[in-house]
């Protein structure tokens, strides 16, 4: 019979099968990256739903005949669909799909789990509760929250909202926000909630510490405000569910009986509150299976504690511990690199992963002269792989900080490569960037009424919707642009009350037009920021505003680049380049796109080709972690996560000098790269020989134009540049042949619109995208 079961789960190795068939009691699966932890979890759910305890290690029941097992096997292979016969065979206490709760860390992972279950189980997969901690708890609270004093239709506050409440609380308590930065206060409150501490307990635990005492007071006021607004914050969602279960045993019992089988993926990243939640829910039936990897714990800064995994056997007596050691994901070389890096951590249990996969190619380290060369390499490599049969979606670009994505996006846009950013907006979709582009567009062309409406009262300057509506009406009736109507507001009765703010606005735009004529774009942007009040508006938003300001600094980097590339590039040409980005929006409908995300959001995922961008000291590991050995270890675990996302090929990229947040820095090579044995690395150094791709003289002139860095004269060989006119036939590596529809000279290159045989009409930079004239 065991042999028959083995055939049912033929694709699994012995240990994995053991984990799948261990249906009852506490189980801990502790194993390294790519060893099939998530795969086991999916198969466990499928096994429970299909066969229940009929297929379990101890429980092959005596009534299960060889014939029955053969039938089960055929069913597992999808060749039998006789539900009646099946019902006869399998045990009666088979759990229903809705008795199973499978928790994962991100929405993307939960989505993938559901997909894989649907592939194995069909429709009944819909009834399995596969969710993140937060979404599972929100569901429970929506039904049960009332005894805790909230209404069922409570609002969920995001960080922005929460920060505003903290600030109000501080104001009413007369707490100075320089001694107590609101962002830090909010994060202390958040950590307290992770520990299940209320304001009183936080105060008690502070041992008379003055600062903690003050924060506890803010916490209390914050919590009261939330409650009276019938709102919860992100951390409350878990905390309140735990409280509910602790205080209302009948409610707990209901959910214990509902979720008879509980599984948690990425258990190493759970915090104390999440641990409590799981313990309570599993407290009755004890069918709890957690899977995790202590080497992949990367959320300590959010209160996650590896303790949960290390002490599982004590917390759940009789737990079965299963270790998986075979990696099925990566090539031997990628795995060797990952093992070598993580071996430098001291705080670990220690384990080695092996694989039967091919040794694969070396890990490629590409050292570019600057961030633009880095982006260029990534784009070229993607295009080369696609030409050789890979899909765009086989590629993931991972980075440490969101801001790194900008220059890489820009290169993808110019080369016509479709991409998507996971867990974040694409650069030009962000509100503050759209606002700035709208200002610039209005300065460039005041008749752009759509953009004008976007920013006329952003930030607020007393020009309300009704004024704008009245002006629009006049504009429609008289057939003149909106801007002209407001510029002559005093001539129209309906506008008379608002002539002052309207007049000031118009005056401001006219003066900024002057700036646009006389000054470089980056100066213009600074002026727009200060003259419009946008800078102050963002400063007033605290933490969120800070991120937005950084994004605007990145917009400035884009402008500096543009001006270097384009000697006499002006505002209107810059806006045309920006229009390239908007053009990309249309190709986004396509699912075959390169994926860009932070290393944190890549946890649990895998891709054939992975780029780790910015492998430099100060970026990865980040500057903030440099002083603390334990934070360096956390960064190293993140490196381990990043490296082990790659199935076939791993690329590490660096820039000798990097423009980030509007500033140029030079960073040394990341220590993590140094920890990879030399023989695993294939190093390409493009910091010295910059002219590998000769069509891009912009790289060299840049040092001079940004000033101060170096006065080295550009030694760029003259590039063989493509010259095109409408009607020409061209060829693109990926889109095939196409006919040129329009050509606009821009940035030492040509902005070309062409209709291609594959992919339809696209806008590209002709030289950057390596178009060939036919
Ligand atoms: P991570 O630690 O990154 O979350 P993991 O341990 O959850 O990784 P999985 O994502 O489950 O690993 O599996 C990694 C890859 O190995 C997947 O592509 C999966 O299909 C494959 N795999 C798992 N087990 C086997 C097996 N027994 N035979 C063949 N392939 C397998
Ligand atoms: Mg996994």
From TrEMBL:
Superkingdom to which the source organism belongs: Bacteria
Annotated InterPro entries: DExx_box_DNA_helicase_dom_sf (IPR013986), DNA_helicase_UvrD-like_C (IPR014017), DNA_helicase_UvrD/REP (IPR000212), P-loop_NTPase (IPR027417), UvrD-like_ATP-bd (IPR014016)
MF-aspect GO terms: 3'-5' DNA helicase activity; ATP binding; DNA binding; hydrolase activity
Keyword set, alphabetical order: ATP-binding, DNA-binding, Helicase, Hydrolase, Isomerase, Nucleotide-binding
Positions that bind ATP: 31-38
CDD domains for this protein: DEXQc_UvrD (cd17932), SF1_C_UvrD (cd18807)
Residue span(s) of domain UvrD-like helicase C-terminal: 332-604
Residue span, UvrD-like helicase ATP-binding domain: 10-331
Biological process according to GO: recombinational repair; response to radiation
Record's GO cellular component terms: cytosol; DNA helicase complex
Gene3D superfamilies tied to this protein: 1.10.10.160, P-loop containing nucleotide triphosphate hydrolases, PCRA, domain 4
Catalyzed reactions: ATP + H2O = ADP + phosphate + H(+); Couples ATP hydrolysis with the unwinding of duplex DNA by translocating in the 3'-5' direction
Catalytic activity, EC: 5.6.2.4
Family statement: Belongs to the helicase family. UvrD subfamily.
Identification of the protein by name: ATP-dependent DNA helicase PcrA
């Amino acid at each position: 019979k065991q042999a028959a079961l083995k055939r049912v789960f033929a694709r699994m190795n012995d240990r994995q099968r053991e984990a799948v068939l261990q249906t009852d009691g506490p189980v801990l699966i502790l194993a390294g990256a790519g060893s099939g932890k998530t795969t086991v979890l999916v198969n466990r759910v499928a096994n429970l739903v299909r066969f229940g305890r009929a297929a379990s290690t101890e429980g092959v029941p005596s009534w299960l005949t060889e014939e029955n097992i053969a039938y089960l096997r055929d069913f597992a292979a999808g060749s039998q669909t006789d539900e009646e016969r099946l019902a006869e065979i399998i045990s009666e206490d088979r759990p229903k799909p809705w008795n199973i709760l499978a928790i994962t860390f991100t929405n993307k992972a939960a989505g993938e789990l559901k997909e894989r279950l649907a592939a194995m189980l069909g429709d009944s997969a819909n009834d399995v509760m596969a969710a993140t901690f937060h979404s599972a708890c929100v569901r429970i609270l929506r039904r049960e929250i009332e005894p805790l004093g909230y209404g069922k239709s409570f609002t969920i506050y995001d960080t922005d909202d929460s920060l505003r409440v903290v600030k109000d609380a501080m104001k009413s308590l007369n707490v100075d926000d320089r001694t107590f930065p609101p962002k830090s206060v909010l994060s202390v409150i958040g950590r307290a909630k992770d520990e299940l501490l209320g304001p009183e307990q936080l105060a008690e635990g502070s041992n008379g510490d003055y600062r903690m005492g003050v924060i506890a007071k803010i916490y209390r006021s914050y919590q009261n405000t939330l409650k009276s607004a019938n709102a919860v914050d992100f951390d409350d969602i878990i905390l309140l569910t735990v409280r509910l279960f602790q205080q209302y045993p009948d409610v707990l019992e209901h959910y214990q009986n509902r979720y008879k089988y509980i599984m948690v993926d990425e258990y190493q990243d759970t915090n104390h509150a999440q641990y409590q939640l799981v313990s309570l829910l599993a407290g009755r039936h004890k069918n709890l299976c957690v899977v995790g990897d202590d080497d992949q714990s990367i959320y300590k800064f959010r209160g996650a504690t590896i303790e949960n995994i290390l002490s599982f056997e004590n917390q759940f007596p009789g737990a079965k511990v299963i270790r998986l050691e075979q990696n099925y994901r990566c090539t031997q070389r990628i795995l060797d690199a990952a093992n070598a890096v993580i071996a430098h951590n001291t705080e670990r249990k220690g384990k080695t992963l092996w694989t039967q996969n091919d040794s694969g190619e070396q890990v490629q380290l590409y050292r570019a002269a600057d961030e633009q060369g880095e982006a260029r390499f990534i784009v070229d490599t993607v295009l080369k792989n696609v030409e050789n049969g890979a899909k765009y979606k086989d590629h993931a670009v991972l980075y440490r900080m969101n801001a790194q994505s900008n220059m890489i996006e820009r290169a993808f846009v110019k080369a016509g490569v479709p991409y998507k950013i996971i867990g974040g907006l694409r650069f030009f979709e962000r509100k503050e960037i759209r606002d700035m582009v709208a200002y610039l567009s209005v300065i460039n062309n005041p008749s752009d009424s759509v953009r004008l409406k976007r920013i006329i009262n952003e930030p607020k300057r007393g020009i309300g919707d009704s004024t704008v509506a009245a002006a629009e009406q006049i504009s429609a009736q008289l057939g003149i642009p909106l801007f002209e109507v407001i510029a002559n507001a005093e001539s129209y009765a309906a506008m008379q009350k608002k002539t002052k703010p309207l007049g000031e606005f118009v005056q401001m735009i006219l003066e900024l037009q002057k700036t646009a004529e006389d000054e470089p774009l980056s100066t213009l942007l600074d002026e727009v920021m200060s003259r419009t009040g946008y800078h102050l508006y963002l400063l007033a938003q605290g933490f969120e505003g800070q991120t937005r300001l950084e994004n605007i600094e990145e917009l400035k980097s884009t402008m500096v680049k543009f001006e270097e590339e384009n000697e006499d590039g002006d505002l209107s040409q810059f806006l045309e380049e920006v229009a390239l980005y908007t053009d990309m929006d249309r190709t986004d409908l396509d699912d075959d796109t390169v994926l860009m995300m932070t290393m944190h959001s890549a946890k649990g995922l895998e891709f054939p080709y992975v780029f780790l961008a910015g492998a430099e000291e100060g970026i990865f590991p980040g500057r903030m972690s440099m002083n603390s050995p334990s934070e360096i270890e956390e960064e190293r675990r993140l490196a381990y996560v990043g490296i082990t996302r790659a199935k076939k090929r791993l690329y590490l990229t660096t820039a000798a000098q990097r423009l980030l947040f509007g500033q140029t820095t030079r960073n040394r090579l990341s220590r993590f790269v140094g920890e990879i044995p030399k023989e695993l690395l294939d190093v390409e150094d493009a910091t010295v020989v910059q002219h590998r791709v000769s069509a891009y003289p912009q790289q060299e002139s840049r040092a001079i134009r940004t000033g101060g860095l170096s006065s080295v004269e550009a030694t760029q060989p003259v590039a063989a540049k493509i010259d095109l006119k409408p009607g020409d036939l061209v060829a693109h590596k990926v889109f095939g042949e196409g006919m040129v529809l329009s050509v606009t000279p821009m940035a030492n290159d040509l902005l070309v619109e062409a209709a291609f045989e594959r992919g339809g009409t696209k806008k590209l930079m002709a030289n950057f995208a390596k178009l060939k004239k036919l």
